[in-house]
Amino acid sequence: MAHHGRLATAVVAVVRGGPDLLETVENALAAIATADIVSPGASVLVKPNLHGGPGHTSPGMMSAVCRWAAGRGARRVLLGDGPYWGMTDCRPYFEAAGVYRACAESGAEPVFFHKHPYRLHHPGDPAVPPVLGVSRYLYEVDVVISVPVMKTHFHTGITIALKNLKGCLRPVDKRRLHERDLVPALAVVNELVQPLVSVTICDATTAYEGMGPAAADPVSLGLVIASRDPVATDVVCCQLMGLEPSRVPLIGASAARGVGTADPGRIEVRGEAIAAHARRFERPEEALARQFPGLTVLSDRACSVCSQNLVLALQELQAAGQSPGEVCVLIGASERTEADVLVGDCALRGRTTESGARGCPPPVGAIREALQRRTQVS
């Protein structure tokens, strides 16, 4: 249905996931009239969300999308991603994430973006580094299918369709993006990369709330969301997560660059009614406050790995019966100075403190020890 009677400019399918995810994928793509995007003999890249930790696209969904492409006659199907910038050997993570299993089930080939050349671009935009490298896999295939997972995120509010394309960048560029304002930088990345993507199929069979991307809690939602428009996809996902789309800066910034449609009144939703499945997802800051009362985290311009390691260190303290107590922690390249504990080389740059954990990223143990030193001093 088109909301408010205005002409819809984007179509999003919300489909209930059944025991046969291949059938679910077929139904979702048929609902948005994209079942013809793969022609016999085509080469296809399936790009899931494999960020390096838990809360990734499910093996079942990866397998289903690859099997769907193969069933349409694709001569070659590639399945892969460029996880967090510091990963040099993908094999342990790909095994744990079910990538190899999905490939075995579908006949797809696993690919690791970091070990393949990148096409260099010069966007000429101050929001991003002067040069951005985009994986050449995206240019060497006929069809690109983005398969993100629905999650909350510490720095961007959500990580779904728009955030998923960050994995296509060179490792050095992923790192440099966090030295800037991440939201406008990601909007530029989407303006550059999104035209290469044929369709987005969001895995919301199991979604994630709380301290995403890597320490979130699973939510059994049982849905698949599909669209050619990544902004509209994120808008609909926000509505399902109980988030106001207009309060997610990445959505507005990407729409302003022409990446897609952010106005809910111009989005036609087909399939399941949003109201039948919507629930309020816990926000990252709420989860942090609930689990660690008294803790304040300043995370401007911090990368996901620093955030993940900080959460893991906090969880280790908690498991040992210790509490960080009233403490302010700074991660990332913020200019703020009121923190008690500084985590990572970006936070420590040009500063001296005994309550710091060096590294890029800093080891979990080093962060835990820095928090313990602060607790002992207090």
By helix and strand content, what is the structural category?
alpha/beta
| CATH C-level label of the largest domain | Alpha Beta
Order of helices and strands: EHEHEHHEEEEEEHHHEEHHEHEHEEHEH
**In CATH, what is the homologous superfamily of the largest domain?**
LarA, N-terminal domain
- In whole angstroms, how far apart are the ends? 58 Å
Q: Which spans of ≥5 residues are poorly predicted at pLDDT below 50?
A: 1-5
In DSSP terms (H or I, runs of 4 or more residues), the helix count works out at 13
Average of per-residue pLDDT values: 90
| Global morphology | globular
CATH architectural label of the largest domain: 3-Layer(aba) Sandwich
Helix content: 25-40%
* Number of E strands: 16
Percent in strands: 15-25%
What is the radius of gyration computed over CA atoms, rounded to a whole number of angstroms? 21 Å
Strand count, sense and closure of the main sheet?
A: 10 strands, mixed
Structurally, the number of domains stands at 2
According to CATH, the fold-level topology of the largest domain is Rossmann fold
Structural notes for this entry:
There is one protein chain. The chain is of the alpha/beta class. The protein folds into two domains: 3-276, Rossmann fold; 292-377, Rossmann fold (3-Layer(aba) Sandwich), CATH 3.40.50. It contains 13 helices and 16 strands. It has helices at residues 21-31, 59-71, 91-97, 99-106, 161-164, 171-177, 182-193, 230-240, 249-256, 284-291, 304-319, 345-348, 364-377; strands at 10-16, 43-48, 76-81, 109-112, 118-121, 132-135, 143-147, 149-153, 157-159, 199-211, 215-227, 267-271, 295-298, 327-331, 341-343, 356-357. Strands 1, 2, 3, 4, 7, 8, 9, 10, 11 and 12 form a ten-stranded mixed β-sheet that branches. The protein has a four-stranded parallel β-sheet with strand order 13-14-15-16. Helix 11 links the parallel strand 13 and strand 14. Helix 1 (21-31) packs across helix 2 (59-71), helix 2 (59-71) packs parallel to helix 4 (99-106) and helix 11 (304-319) crosses helix 13. The radius of gyration is 21 Å and the shape is globular.
